[in-house]
């Protein structure tokens, strides 16, 4: 049974809780779905813990790519601040190793990508959207495991070829965006069936460590607000001068 660990984002406290839960449930393999270190207070420690997992499959997420392809980082302080901080914490050799990770992996019943076969920053949402079958980029798996949106979900989509693909997002281990602050992950059985799970963890520990690690930077304050709320981070709008 494969544990699906996506979007850890440097949250070691959440990761430890998820690994404990997965091991008790019988997981004997691991899929590390990308976006391992950026934003969270334990960028190096979270990566080290994931690297210690036996029989792990790895994917490159957009944050692993952005650490090298810096021109693609959105021009907003939240994204640039988090990417820069994680890159500096990991160091050049680790950044290069993570950048070299594969874009996709075969898993029981289908395939796993970070966002979608179309792009690592193009994901699937819980509600259907127009032309979302195009995000498969011509691939026809029966099961597609993805992350990126930080929204735990499972639903079927119709492919352009007329077939159906079940899309599963196990949610974010370290930074959920669906209003439930518990760590999210999934278990993929050998027959291709998926169980979506949530695990409580020590959020206060994460918030305290986040402040100690990143201080009063605007991007860090915004990210800290996601842990207890399970909602996306936002930065206050800039104050514009009066005409």
Description:
- The chain is of the alpha/beta class and about 240 residues long.
- It contains eight helices and ten strands.
- It has a single domain (about 1-230), classed as Purple Acid Phosphatase, chain A, domain 2 (4-Layer Sandwich).
- It is globular, with a radius of gyration of 17 Å.
- A five-stranded mixed beta sheet has the order 3-2-1-9-10. The protein has a five-stranded mixed beta sheet with strand order 4-5-6-8-7, with no helix packed on it.
- The termini are far apart.
- The longest helix has 14 residues, at about 10-25.
- A hairpin with a 5-residue loop joins strand 7 and strand 8 (about 165-170).
Based on CA atoms alone, the radius of gyration comes out at 17 Å
Proportion of strand residues: 15-25%
Which sequence of SSEs, written as H and E, runs from N to C?
EHEHEHHHEEEEEEEHHH
By secondary-structure content and strand pairing, the structural class works out as alpha/beta
The biggest sheet amounts to:
5 strands, mixed
Q: Tell me the count of domains.
A: 1
